[in-house]
Amino acid sequence: MTKKRSKLQIIYNILETLMQGEINPTKLATLVNMPYDRLMDLLEEMNEKGLVIISSSGKVKSVGITSKGVELYEELKKVVELLDEYGLL
Amino acid sequence: MSILLIIIEIVGFLSFLYIALKLLITYRKLMVQDLLLPSTSFIFLSISQLCATLSIIYNDIRISTSFYTATASLAIVAFLVMIIQKQHSEEMYIFTPYIALLMIPDVVAGILSTYIAIQASGYTKILLLILSSSYYLRAVSVVVGVEITPLLLLIAELVRSISAVALAIYSSAKVFKL
Predict the structure, then answer these.
(1) Rounded-to-integer distance, Cα B156 and Cα B142, Å
(2) What is the ipTM score, two decimals?
(3) Taking a C-beta distance cutoff of 8 angstroms, is the pair B45, B75 a contact?
């Protein structure tokens, strides 16, 4: 049985994907393997914390990472690696 | 010798405390519950190291023994919190009282740290296995003959302090930011 991903892992996966550059939310949902609605809720939450920026021109939406998000990604990378090594994720 | 041991224990205390604070800072930024329990585990590991330090510093045999016992007891809490974090299910809370019934500190610290070690990876696994072996050695040392007890306790304490500090330094190096 595959263990359910923690919220921490999901946030890390999102930030990791966004490190590659701006992306459409639908494509992001596919890449991080989660439903679009849940992803949008999480992105709104991350947007409020200043980690990502959601922009839209017309009907086209895109998500990018902020400098605060990049900083947190660097920290999370180490934290996730540590917790993973302890088997805590 | 005891000065060196005190320095080693303090390094372990500070390293585990650094990891706990790092996790708490990340928790404050993200407010994700997944970071709270691991942070608590590392806080207990650091207090365990502090008790080990104080057990060496205090000359009074009763105070020193209390701190010595607290070292394993606090390690139990730390590993128990890690297991709760890993399982994250109701069954774990059902089994917790039974685990508490087995509270012979060194044995329980050994069992719990072995359980964590089995599921860990890399150097963490090796260091956790060495650390857990020291708890078993401490438990064995109190049931063998009086003449062997001091020697076994010394070996166990040496293995425990070195492995705990190595684990603390290795883990804190992973999250250390210059």
Answers:
(1) 11
(2) 0.87
(3) yes
Residue A21: pLDDT band with limits 50, 70, 90: very high
Structure tokens at B35: 């970071």
Q: What is the pLDDT of residues A24-50, one digit of tens each?
A: 999 999 999 999 999 999 999 999 999
Range of the domain at B162: 2-175
pLDDT in tens, B42-86: 999 999 999 999 998 988 888 888 888 888 888 888 888 888 887
Give the DSSP letter string of chain A: -PPPPPHHHHHHHHHHHHTT--B-HHHHHHHTT--HHHHHHHHHHHHHTTSEEEEEETTEEEEEE-HHHHHHHHHHHHHHHHHHHTT--
What is chain A's mean pLDDT, rounded? 91
Task: Tell me the domain boundaries of chain A.
Answer: 7-85
For the record, the structure tokens of B47 come out as: 């207090």
Which among B37, B120, B175 has the least Cβ separation from residue A87?
B120
Choose the closest CB to A81 out of B22, B119, B174: B174
Domain count, chain B: 1
- Contacts with B119 from chain A: Cβ below 8 Å: 87
Query: Is A7-85 a domain of CATH 1.10.10.10?
Result: yes
The predicted-structure confidence for B76-135, as pLDDT tens digits, reads as follows: 888 888 888 877 655 555 565 555 545 567 888 888 899 999 989 999 999 999 999 998
Pairing state between β A60-65 and A52-57: antiparallel
Owner of token pair 């001091």:
B150
